[in-house]
Design a protein that fits this description.
The protein is α/β, with parallel strands linked by helices and 388 residues long. The chain is built from 14 helices and nine strands. Helix 1 runs parallel beside helix 13. The radius of gyration is 22 Å and the shape is globular.
């Protein structure tokens, strides 16, 4: 063995031990995020009473999915009064006309977005304003996206949990659509990273400050929304669901975030570029536009996801068994943590060994998000750019 190799082996071994310890710490100390066991079985429970609900759905150029999504909202097995408001946010593909064909839906033509608001939040505010004009206003606002196919029993289950536990915000992270090879690589990893960033047990613990929500389906108590100053409190937020959760929890509200069992996204990602743009839109915003946080995130992603396979190969090449064993153990721990999420999507646990590749991709997306921000294109989505 050469002198250079002798110098490299100890460093590689110590790095392998460090990354193995890091994954051990994540498995034990990060709120059991990896178990993916905070779930809702839609349709299995019903509330003791049926408060009035206003469903508000913002939509911009959703002609390919709007009828299926709205129909699933209109056909909820909910015995109470549910009023559905679709706010068309400047669509040019006939979204509003298609929405009007769904019985029971009130379609609102959205006005131009004022300064300080994102287009989506302005659309939501107009829907809520319309709902509040009723002589008997809704006790709950159900915020959902225009590309979600809802299980018929979803609203009843959300309401039962909200009423039983006194929740002010009850949200579901819906099942994302997986069809293509790039979906298999990137979509379960997206869910895994989100759970690691916001461990659901910590989010659901009133004693902890951590707050998060998933915008695909959010049932909000109207009084809680009024307490934080209405939807205007998050007017300019790009990550509006988590911002809403943070404001409600910080004012004493109770929140819950769960994984949906049946409710799913019906949006197809026709290319890697579509997923890339979705992530790059908000990743740097998530870091509060901090270069220091960006550098730390990149370093952490390389350390946690790239080092285990690199050090495994290094150990094999150098015939250094301790390095190989420690590095592969870290890689295996990574796959072990990822396995429950893969199972949720019907994928083999062997795909866990692909997580380093997904980690590299998401790191590059985060860097691209920063580049877009510096070029004045941060928050770009559906033809519009939002500048904080």
């Amino acid at each position: 063995m050469t002198a250079d190799a002798l110098q490299t082996v100890p460093t590689a071994f110590y790095l392998a031990i460090l990354v193995l310890a890091a994954w051990g710490g994540l498995l034990v100390l990060r709120g059991d995020f990896w178990r993916a066991d905070q779930r809702v079985a839609e349709g299995e429970t019903e509330p003791d009473r049926w408060p009035i609900v206003a469903g508000v759905i913002p939509a911009r150029n959703e002609a390919d999915v709007i009828e299926q999504s709205l129909t699933s909202v209109a056909e909820q097995h909910y015995e109470g009064d549910i009023r559905i408001f679709l706010v068309d946010d400047g669509s040019t593909d006939g979204t509003a006309a298609l929405a009007r064909q769904v019985p029971g839906v009130t379609v609102i033509e959205g006005s131009d977005t004022p300064a300080g608001w994102t287009g989506k939040m302005w659309a939501v505010s107009q829907g809520i304003a319309a709902a509040e004009k009723a002589p008997d206003p809704a006790a709950y606002i159900w915020l959902t996206d225009a590309d979600i196919a809802h299980h018929p029993g979803e609203l009843a289950s959300l309401m039962a949990r909200s009423e039983d536990d006194g929740l002010d915000l009850n949200s579901l992270m819906v099942r994302l659509r997986i069809e293509k090879a790039w979906d298999v690589l990137l979509i379960p990893a997206f869910v895994f990273f989100f759970q690691k960033l916001y461990p659901f047990p910590w989010v659901n613990d009133p004693a902890r400050k951590m707050a998060a929500a998933a915008g695909g389906s959010m049932l909000v108590r109207h009084s809680a929304l009024q307490r934080i100053g209405g939807i205007a409190a998050i007017a300019g937020e790009l990550i509006d669901d988590c911002a809403l959760a943070q404001r409600i929890k910080s004012t004493g509200g109770r929140i819950r975030l769960s994984l949906a069992t049946e409710t799913r996204s019906i949006r197809a990602y026709n290319s890697v570029g579509e997923i890339w743009r979705m992530v790059a839109r908000t990743a740097f915003h998530q870091l509060n536009y901090s270069v220091l946080a960006l550098a730390g995130t990149v370093a952490a992603m390389v350390f946690l996801y790239l080092l285990p396979p690199v050090l495994t190969v290094t150990g094999l090449v150098l015939w250094e068994t301790p390095t190989t064993v420690a590095a592969f153990a870290a890689w295996f721990a990574m796959g072990w943590a990822f396995a429950p999420t893969l199972y949720r999507y019907g994928l083999s646990p062997w795909y866990g060994f692909m997580l380093p590749a997904a980690g590299v991709m998401y790191t590059l997306m985060t860097l691209d998000s920063a580049r877009r921000h510096w070029q004045g294109r941060g928050g770009e989505w559906k033809g519009r750019t939002h500048r904080p």
